Amino acid sequence: MSVLLRVRDLAVAYGHIEAVKGLTFHLNTGEITALVGANGAGKSTTLLALSGLLKPARGKIEFDGEDITALPAHQIVKRGVVQVAEGRAILTTLTVAENLVLGAYTRTDKAEIAASLDEVYALFPRLKDRADQFAGNLSGGEQQMLAIGRALMAKPKLLLLDEPSMGLAPIMVQEIFRTLVEINRRGLTILLVEQNVRQALKIARHGYVIETGEIVLADSGENLLANPKVEEAYLGG
Amino acid sequence: MLEQQLLNALTLGSVYALFALGFTLVFGVLAVINLSHGAVFMVGSYAALALVTHFDAPLWLAILGAMLISGTIGLLVDVLILKPLRARNAPHLIPMIATIGVGIMLTSAAQGMFGAEVLRFPEETLPAGEFIVGNVHVRALELAIVAIAFILMAVLFTLIKRTQLGRALRAIAESPKAAWLLGINVEGLFHVTSFVAAALGGVAGVLIGLDFNAITPQMGQPILHKGIAVIILGGMGDIRGALIGGLFLGFAEVISKAYLSSQMGDAVAFGLLFLILLVRPSGLFGRKLERKA
Fold first, then answer.
1. Taking a C-beta distance cutoff of 8 angstroms, is the pair B232, B277 a contact?
2. For B85-121, what is each residue's pLDDT tens digit?
3. Chain B positions in Cβ-Cβ contact with residue A50 (cut-off 8 Å)
4. What is the ipTM of this complex?
5. Does the pLDDT of residue B222 top 50, yes or no?
6. Which of A82, A213, B82, B289 is most buried, by the most CB atoms less than 10 A from its CB?
7. A interface mutation test: which of B161, B182, B290 has the most A CBs within 10 A?
C-alpha cells in the first residue's frame, strides 16, 4: 500500500496559541481516511494547513513524494490536493455551471474539462437541471453536491472534505456519504474531517481521533467504532 | 439645444463611467477604497501630454502609453503598499489612508515636474473633424471619447462575464479564501486588477484632458469625489452600477448646468444622488448590506 500524503509533526499556531500541536499521520493511496474529533480539536486548522492557507509553525507535509509544506495554496491545488471547505464555500453570486467550470481553473485541457463536467453532471443530475441558476439559490444539500462536484472538476488526486455533513438533514447526509464512497471506489483518495464521528468511521478504512490539537487514537475505522473510548466520548455511550 | 446637451452629457458620463469602473473594480476585488485613483487619472493625462509634446507621439499611441504608465503606478501601489498591508491583516481604514498619501505624492510630483499652471494639448494633435447631424454639432473628438470609453467598457464586461479570468475575479470578490482553494493565485490577480483599474483611470484622465483641453495637477480631486458618488450610487463593487451611475451623473451634471444654474450644476447632481440613496441605501445594483457578526 503506497502512501499518498505523509504529515510529520505538524504544528499550526494562531498568534501564540498552538491549535495543532504536532500531528503525525499518513493517508494511503485509494483509501478514505477520517480525522474525527470534537469542535475546536484542530481538525479544520489541519486541513487549512494541508491546503496552504495557514503556514505551519513546524513540521512537514509530503504529498506524492514531494515536500509541499511551503507551497502557496494555488500550487497545492495544481498538484492535486483539493479541499471542499467547511460551510461549503460555494460562490453564491456565480451560477452552478460557472462554479463548476471555475473548479477546473488549474487545468487547460479543454476537451478533458468538458468530459469532467459531464461526469459531475452524471454523478449529480440535479446540478445539471440547475446549471444556470445562481448557486446561492440552491438548497443546503445541493450546495454540498456543488462543492464536491466543483472540487472534482480540478481532477484531484486527494480530496479533503471539511465537515460535509454540517447543517444537512440526515437523509441528505446519507446521500452525500454514499456519493463519497462511490467517488472513492473510482479511485480517489479522501481525507474526511467530521464531527459526525459514527458516519465518518463507517465509511473510513482508517481513522484518527484528534483532541485539543493532538492525535489520541489511530486505528482502522472499524476498530475505532468498536472502541469503548470512542463510544463514550463521541457516540453518546 | 437639448440634443447638443445630451451629446455633451453622454461624453462626460461615459468618461465618468470609465473612471468609476476602475474604482469599483478595485473595491470589488481587493476590498480597498483606493483614493489614489483620482491622482492616477491625473497622471494619465500628463503622461499622454508628455508623450505628445516631448516625443511627438500620435494621439492613439499617447493614449496607450498613458494606460501603460498609469497601470504601472497602480501595480506598484498594490505591490509596494497594499500587499504588505494585506500580509499584516491591516483593518480596512489603513489601506484607504495609505492611498490618500499616494494621491498627495503623485499630485505633488506632477506639480514639481510640470508646474501648477493649466497645460493644454497642442491644437494640431486633436482630431479636428466636426460634422452636423440634425441640429447637433458633433466633434470627432467627442465621438472618439465616447467610442473609446464604450469599447473599453465592453471589453471589460465581456472579460468579467465570459472568461475564466472574469469568473476568478468574481470568485475573489465573493471570497478570497474560496478562490485560493480553487487554485486561483489570488495575490497575482490582485496585481492584475490593480494594473487594469489604474489603466482605465489613466485613460479616463486622457479623455477628460482632451475634452476640456485643460490639464492641472489638481484635476484628479473633483473626479475622485464624483467617482465615489458614482460607485455608491451604482452599488459598491458592481460594474454595471459604475456604468449606469457614471452616465447618470454625467447627464445630471450637464442638464442641470444647462437648464437650472451653471454654478449649481454639481450641487443639483449630488443632491439627486443623495435622494436616490435615501430610497436605495445599497445603491442601484448593490446587494443588501448585511451586518456581519
1. yes
2. 999 989 989 999 999 999 999 999 999 999 999 999 9
3. none
4. 0.94
5. yes
6. A82
7. B182
**A123 touching B (Cβ < 8 Å):** no
Using one digit for the tens of pLDDT, what is the confidence trace for A151-177? Answer: 999 999 999 999 999 989 999 999 999
B/e letters for B254-292, b = 16+ CB within 10 Å, e = fewer, are: bbbbbeeeeeebbebbbebbeebeeeeeebbbbeeeeee
Angle at B243 between CA B261 and CA B61, to 5 degrees: 95
- What CA–CA distance (Å, rounded) separates B90 from B86? 6
Q: Give pLDDT tens digits for A35-76.
A: 999 888 999 999 999 999 999 999 999 999 999 999 999 999
Q: Do B171 and A94 touch (CB under 8 A)?
A: yes
**Cell reading at B119:** 497645460
Domains and CATH numbers, chain A: 3-234 (3.40.50.300)
**pLDDT value at position B291?**
41
**Whether A168 contacts chain B with CB within 8 A:** no
Instruction: Tell if the CB–CB gap between B181 and A90 is shorter than 8 Å.
Output: no
**Alpha carbon distance A225, A204 (integer Å):** 10
The set of cell numbers assigned to B229 is 458618488
In chain A the beta strands, taken as DSSP E runs, fall at: 3-14, 17-28, 32-36, 58-63, 66-67, 81-84, 158-162, 189-194, 206-211, 214-220
| A60 touching B (Cβ < 8 Å) | no
Q: Which of the residues in chain A have pLDDT under 50?
A: none
